[in-house]
Design goal:
Blueprint (H helix, E strand, L loop, with lengths): L1 H46 L3 H26 L3 H7 L4 H18 L3 H8 L2 H25 L4 H29 L5 H33 L3 H27 L16
Helix pairs in contact: 2-8, 2-9, 3-4, 4-7, 6-7, 6-9, 8-9
Amino acid sequence: MYKIKKDEEADNINLKEDNNHKINHKINHKIGNLNENTVKEKTSNKDEIPEYIKKERSLKYVVKDGIFTSIKTGFTESFIMPFAIALNATTGMLAALSSIPQLLGNFFQLFSEESLKIFKNRSNLIFWTALIQAFIWIPLLLVPFLAKESLWLVLLLVSLEAILGHFQGPIYNSILGDLIPDDKRGEFFGNRNRIINLINFISTMIAGFIINYFQRISSEEHYVFIGFGILFFIAFVSRLIAAFYKRRIYNPEYVVKKRDFSF
């Protein structure tokens, strides 16, 4: 009888030890998980780039974007009308090319802020509009070789390019307003505009030399279109690079304000 009780007490002790071991194992497992989570949080916090560094990097991208955009502008803005004249555009078509793209661009600019309700991310929006702008120059340089009589196609492509450029303008400016402190805006835009204007001037001069060269090497009409093709291809590449830099610009959190409009 005494032996049976002793065995029962020994079993109870072993059972308690097993339970204590299981409890300790669970506690150690939970502590281990907590430590792992803590380490992950610390490493994630270390990997996260501070916002001021993101803004500083973005301002460099803004300058580079401006440089390549000014190259695109220098190689195209002053040469759309000569391009149309080389295609034997009528006076009415020249008038349309000088007015309709700007008119449509200013009109669609009114919908820039409303588009943020759909796209949410401003950097993505300016990236995609710039990317589409870049690819517009490919069919435009092919027009003289594939559809020389289709001046309406030139008007359509130039208008679409202007619409996309005007459309992204307010969105791009809103990002710049969030990135640049008020007390540094004058200095930043002064330096940036000085660089951009210089690049624009040099690009326009080079483009003029290219067109003049292809006009002089032969009196045949198609040679000058090779010159325009080079200009538009450079515009394509430069706008493509500008779109790449736009994509890398940091997009601070932005909330679209609801406006109550009434007369």
